[in-house]
Amino acid sequence: MSLILVQDSSNNQQGEEAKQRETEMRNSILAQVLDQSARARLSNLALVKPEKANAVENYLIQMARFGKLGGKITESGLIEILEKVSQQTEKKMTVTFNRRRVMDSDDEDDY
Question: Mean per-residue pLDDT for 81-102?
Answer without folding.
Answer: 78
